[in-house]
Structure formats: C-alpha cells, structure tokens
Design a protein that fits this description.
Layout: H1 2-22, E1 25-26, H2 27-34, H3 40-50, E2 54-59, E3 62-67
Antiparallel strand pairs: 1-3, 2-3
Length: 68
C-alpha cells in the first residue's frame, strides 16, 4: 500500500511542477504531456485538490486545472 501512495504522491508532484511551469492547462493536455499511466493523473490531481493546492473548473466538456 505504501508503494501505491508513493506513486500517487510522485504523480501529484509531477502535476504540481507542470502547472507551476506552464500555468493553467486542460486536464487532458496535462495528462497527455506528462504521460502518467493508468489512473495516476486522476489520483495525483485528487491528492492536490484534497490539499487545497489547485483550482479545478469545467467549461463544457473540458476540465481546466491551475495552482491556487
């Protein structure tokens, strides 16, 4: 279980660094550019959202993410 949590934490770190460098991005673009496997993009984003570090908004079918 701890290995899984470490992978999720690592994914959250990659997402945070991506948003820090690139600013607001759509979730699909960010996920594709980071090449996160399986559900790790979803889990990493959830980790950051739970910690209150990101704003998530939906416009039509597109989900955008940015750092707070």
């Amino acid at each position: 279980m701890q290995e899984l949590e470490e992978q999720i934490g690592f994914s959250a770190g990659q997402i945070y660094e991506y948003l820090s460098s690139n600013g607001e991005a759509t979730f699909s673009k960010m996920k594709k550019e980071l090449d996160l496997k399986g559900n790790f993009a979803d889990l990493g984003l959830g980790w950051l959202a739970r910690e209150g570090k990101v704003d998530i908004s939906k416009k039509g079918t597109s989900v955008s993410v940015r750092l707070k």
